[in-house]
Amino acid sequence: MALGGFSYALQRANRLQAIDAGLHSRSTQLAGTLYRRPLGGRPEASPGTAPAAIPMVPRMAALFDEAGPVPHYYLVREARPGGRLLYRSRTAPDLFELPPDADAIPGEGLMRIRGESRELLQVNRGGLVFLVGRNISPELAEVRRQAGRLLLGGAGVLLGGLFASGWVARRSLKPIADISEAAKRIAGGDMAERIQTSESRTELGQLAEVLNHSFDELANAYQRQSQFTSDAAHELRTPISILLTETQSTLHQPRSAEEYRESLEVCLETARSMRELTDGLLAVARLDAGMALNRRDRVDLVALVEACLEKLEPKITGRSLEVKRALNPVVCQGDPVQLEQVVTNLLNNAVSYNRDGGELVVSLRGEGGVVLEVADTGIGISAEDLPQVFDRFYRADKARGDAGHSGLGLAISRQIVEAHGGDLTAQSTPGEGSVFTLRLPLERA
Amino acid sequence: MRILIVEDQPDLQRNMARALREELYAVDTASDGEEGLYKAEAYAYDGIILDVMLPRLDGWEVLQRLRKTKSTPVLMLTARDSLEDRVRGLDEGADDYLGKPFELAELFARLRALIRRSAGVSATTLDLGELVLDMKKRTLLRGKQEVPVTAREYNLIEFLALHRGEVVSRMRLYEHLFDEEDASYSNLLDVHVSRIRRKLGKDFILTARGHGYSIPGEHV
Hints:
The complex is a heterodimer. By secondary structure, chain A is of the alpha+beta class. In chain A, the strands form 3 sheets. Chain A has a 5-stranded antiparallel sheet. Helix content of chain A is 49%, strand content 17%. By secondary structure, chain B is α/β, with parallel strands linked by helices. Chain B is built from 8 helices and 11 strands. Chain B has helices at 10-22, 33-42, 59-69, 83-91, 104-118, 151-162, 170-177, 189-200; strands at residues 2-6, 26-30, 47-51, 74-78, 96-99, 125-128, 131-134, 139-142, 145-147, 206-208, 212-214. The two termini of chain B are 18 Å apart. The model of chain B has no long low-confidence stretch (mean pLDDT 86). The A-B interface holds A 234, 237-238, 240-246, 248-249, 252-253, 266, 270, 397-403 and B 7-12, 15-16, 18-19, 22, 32, 53-55, 58, 79-81, 100-105.
């Protein structure tokens, strides 16, 4: 725009210069002509006196190309105030105003603009004022037009520039806007939302990918949590059903004391199993929340195993199981209560899922790392079920309505073991038995 | 009325069976899908209570296979009370669907409705001349007075009344009124029929020699 303005000024100046030059030269010519051609053949008046009148012969008019491509007009009058108008060219306007003081006209002439004409006034020594004027409205108009065009162009460029830069800026910022929009929606609860990104090569594209990945993780965690909650509620339905039907059917009609007693015992057992379930749920929740191990003591695993076996003694003899031990002294670091829970769980399962008269083999080794193996000769676990055996609420016998087994035991055990830096795995041959292997590092990092 | 309960959870099974027997139904039980299907196909039940989560064969399977040969009313029970399960249950041929935990009273009411519907009866009371059979309370009324009848007698009258006008064979009566638990000889039909006649009148139950028994009247 600056350029436009500058160029306009330049042009205008140029034009004016040309016009003025034209005016000057004609004025000079006019003066010269008048003095060389005295009127009516009379002898030249002495310089200093104005002639009576100045007829302009057609030839002279042609000299001043009134009808030419660049029409000028001319006026001549006596310089003194109230002086006569001596000559007026055809296209001259009616008025010929003198500036009030003719003496104010400087020697080189006075340039003025009157309306749409540019005029040059000159006074000569003969006491005459010459006015050469030229209508410059076409020029003015054209210059204005040009200026207009330049202005428009400049403005256009400006606007265009603004838009273009705005567009470019928005385009490059769009991905960021997208990301923040998507993030907002996801935070608002729309877990399935993801950021649309096509250019994974740019930094923003990569950012979007990383964020999408995080959202995937988040959605999964969310899903796992709500799945867990609904599974937990579902699990509680069975013991609640039992309580409801037991009490209602007992109350249905008068019963003997013995019948009431039996019924109450069923309720008691059911309540206990609900407690076990909720305890299990809390343990899982705590482990989920990453609550670190409570203690880091030295744990004598042999003593732990023996203690658990002793507790299970009634069940073991009840099923006539043979227990074989291969226990090497091993001490590890960890939470004794939680480790006891794991060992009890493993041994309990080995007893429960065993067959009557079967075997239970426990072995414990300590070189390199702690390895505890619990093997049973039970019904085993099928190949499809094996990977799921550590899942929450998973029961080997899926439809087992037995409210006594929460289905959380192995899930919790694995979580505890992993929190100790170890792992818990299972192998099984259906029909023959299963082996659960617990590995722990000797010294915790 | 003879009912089959197919439920693997022992406490639930025991309680439902006891409660229904006390409601004067003859009740058989099964603890897994295979046993349940076998019995359902072998005997004539007036209603089956079928749990969805069963060992060996799940409830859906049992229902599907049963529906190939029998149209016995089935009430499904489930701990998974989602909409999809309900819809699936009803679409696959169950006649009703109840989620656990449930109230026993609701179980009974739905069962009664099922049986009524399959007998083509919509009312809960049946008019038998001067006697009225109240199927909700499971009693027999003469006017406002309750007529004392034993469980077996009530069952017999109810069955014949629901099929009134029809001659019901002895075979069928045996099937519908007695369950596996009946070991005693008290399941002699004729003994019950004559007892009823003594209480309610000779013509209350008609004998069609060689064919069976009936309660006369228009089938409602």
